[in-house]
Amino acid sequence: MLLVIFLAQERTGLQWPEVSGSTVFTIIASVSIVALLIYFINSVKGKFQKGDSDWERIHIHALNKGFSQKEISILQGFYQRLNIVEKESFDLEKNKKGSYYLLYTFFLNKDLIPIEERVKILGSLFFERKTDSLPHSTLDLKIGEVCSLEISSKKYLTFVIKKSETEILLKNHKWLSDGKGLSLPASVFCFRSGFGGIVFTGQVVSVSPEGILFHYSGNMRRKGGEKSASTIELSIELKTKSFVKREKGREEDSILLDDIVNKSLDEIDEILGNKPSKDKKEKSESKRIETVVEEIYKKAVTEKISDKFIQFRLEGNITDEILRRNEVWEVKMIFPTGVLFQAKGNIVPVPNSDDIFIFKYLSLDEKSRKELISEVQRLGANQD
Questions:
Q1: Would you put residue 97 in left (φ > 0), alpha (ψ -120 to 50) or beta?
Q2: With contact defined as beta carbons under 8 Å apart, do 347 and 238 qualify?
Q3: Strand blocks (E) in 125-248
């Protein structure tokens, strides 16, 4: 009897409670709300973490460009003012055009930031590959290149729309009133990595909604960018390999006096190569062209040395054709301590000078850079 009662009670305790439809809906709704809340928190947290990692990439990129701490702070201040969507679109590798627009727009009305630093930051981040040479005239500026216009003691951020050998058309952000036949003294400042600032002097001759027309007077000077350059005189060697195409055996041909004695004028022309012979006409198509490697050596004396460039005075001369044909040179320099410094780079002439050039490093590893700076400091050189 007791067993029957016990089994009855146990069976009664195992019965499932009755659940209504409203209870099920409440449970599902509660679980959904909690899940959405967790997803939202993780999403926001992930975006903040992504924002931090994105800034780290920008920070490293700026350091590789040689930005000072002040310039990095300016860039960070801009980045912190962006909203989440803008931060996601600011990508210096995948979205250069959109990133440039955001930073340029931000800089337009930031008068508290020196105009030269704004031009340098924009130029270094977005135009360095297109502006890696020293300009000799306004014709060497690039379409879209960022610059500043100084007129009536005021400076404005702008960029190049059109250019010619003596004139630049600059973007007009409605700073100046329209006018033609003007002659307002002005200057245009642009920045070139490794060379510093370049200032073109001239006059603003007209202003319209289409742009500001600047007439270049022919005077150009460098401004800034050499603070880390030290005045040092050291002998250096420069060399490059030039690849020249020519007819095989052309230089081995020699003409002796006996070859042209007692010959007719036509025969002499054939020997001298002024008139092809019948045999040469038939074989002209079969001539082989060979590529000859010529090594070119030049000696020079340094004037300024930095971890960005070497300014030097060339011994002898060098033609524009050689500079144009040979883009990569190697410099060799031995310091008084016996330390050998070697690097590859480009040679560009300094404007208004026949024998002064700049050697701009193509790449310089951290070890070589530190060694160079150490040797320069050891010499106790004066910094400009």
A1: alpha
A2: yes
A3: 146-151, 154-163, 167-170, 184-192, 196-208, 211-223, 230-231, 235-247
**Secondary structure in 3-state letters for 7-30:** HHHHHHHCCCCCCCHHHHHHHHHH
109 touches 157 (CB < 8 A): no
Cβ(160)–Cβ(144) below 8 Å: yes
> Using CA atoms, how far apart are residues 13 and 225, in angstroms rounded to an integer?
88
Instruction: Identify the structural domains of the chain with CATH numbers, from first to last.
Output: 53-113 (no CATH), 123-223 (2.30.110), 230-247+291-383 (2.40.10.220), 249-287 (no CATH)
Compute the distance between CA of residue 216 and CA of residue 214 in angstroms, rounded to an integer.
6
Q: What are phi and psi of 254, to 5 degrees?
A: -130, 145
What pTM value is reported for the model?
0.53
CA separation for the pair 192, 190 (Å, rounded): 7
Cα separation, 115 vs 264, in Å, equals 75
Q: At what angle do helices 69-80 and 115-126 cross, to 10 degrees?
A: 80
Locate 333 and state its tokens.
Answer: 């320099």
| The pair of three-digit structure tokens given for residue 25, joined into one six-digit string | 């809906």
Q: Using an 8 Å Cβ cutoff, are 61 and 72 in contact? A: no
Instruction: Record the tokens describing residue 260, joined without a space.
Output: 């042209």
Structure tokens at 239: 């060399």
Ordered per-residue pLDDT tens for the chain, 384 residues: 444 444 445 555 555 556 566 666 676 767 667 667 665 555 544 444 444 678 888 888 887 777 888 888 999 999 999 999 999 999 988 898 999 999 999 999 888 899 999 999 998 888 865 555 677 788 888 899 999 999 988 999 999 999 998 999 999 987 777 788 788 999 999 988 767 788 999 999 999 988 999 999 988 887 765 445 678 889 999 998 876 666 665 544 433 444 434 445 555 455 445 555 555 555 554 456 666 777 888 999 999 888 888 989 998 888 877 877 777 899 999 998 899 999 998 888 877 678 888 898 887 888 888 888 888 888 765 555
Amino acid identity of residue 18, one-letter, is: E
Show the tokens assigned to 336: 């008084």
